[in-house]
Amino acid sequence: xxxxxxxxxxxxxxxxxxxxxxxxxxxxxRLPVLGExxxxxxxxxxxxxxxxxxxxxxxxxxxSEHMGxxxxxxxxxxxxxxxxxxxxxxSHLYIVVDEYGGTAGLVTLxxxxxxxxxxxxxxxxxxxxxDDDEQTIEQGLELSGRLNIDDANxxxxxxxxxxxxxxxxxxxxxxxxxxxxxxxxxxxxHYRLTVLRLDGRRVEEVLVQPxxxxx
Length: 215
Fold this sequence. Notes:
By secondary structure, this protein is an alpha+beta fold. The chain has 2 domains: 2-117, CBS-domain (Roll); 141-210, 2-Layer Sandwich (Uridine Diphospho-n-acetylenolpyruvylglucosamine Reductase, domain 3). It has helices at 16-26, 47-55, 79-89, 109-117, 149-156, 168-176, and strands at 2-3, 10-11, 30-34, 41-46, 72-74, 93-97, 103-108, 141-144, 185-187, 191-199, 202-210. Mean pLDDT is 87; it is low at 127-132.
C-alpha cells in the first residue's frame, strides 16, 4: 500500500490540463480526486483519458465533470482476494480505508503483483545503480525507513523487533519517542540504528549495525 502521506492526488476543482500535468510530472498513470480533503476521495482519473480530453480541446474544463468512480477496500483485505476483485472489476487502483472510514492509502495492481512476485521496475521508476558488492549486516545495512520490518528480517537475516509498528522508520520513531534528528542513534537488543536521512517528519534512511556485545 502507498500510505496517505505519499499519495499523489488532485482536487476536483482542478482543470483537466492541471491533472494531466501532475500525472506526467509525478509519473502516475492514475490519480485519486479529492473533494474536501484526503479522507474525501470522490473520483479517479487516468493519464490516457486526461490526454485525450486535452487533445480534444477540453483542457480547461473542471476535473469533477470527467472523473470515474473510486473503488474502496478495507486495509484488512487479503492480497489474493483483492487481486481477484481487480480482475473482475478491471480497475487498477483502489483506495484503502481504515476502520473509521478515513483514507489509509491506496493500492494499485502493480503493488499487489510486487507483493506476490517481487519488485517490478518500469520506465517511470528512477534508475538506481547497483553496488558491485551486496550489503551485509557485518558492514552495516543502509535501509529505507519505509521497508517493512518482516521483509527486512527475512531478506537480510535480521531480528529487528516488531511490536506496534510495521516499518523500520516506525521502529526508530518509537525508540525516539517522536521525530528524531539526523545522526541520532538508537539501540535494540541486537542492533545500533542511526538515522541517515529524514523527509520532513518521516524517517527515510537508517543505518543498521550489529552490536558487538549482542548475544
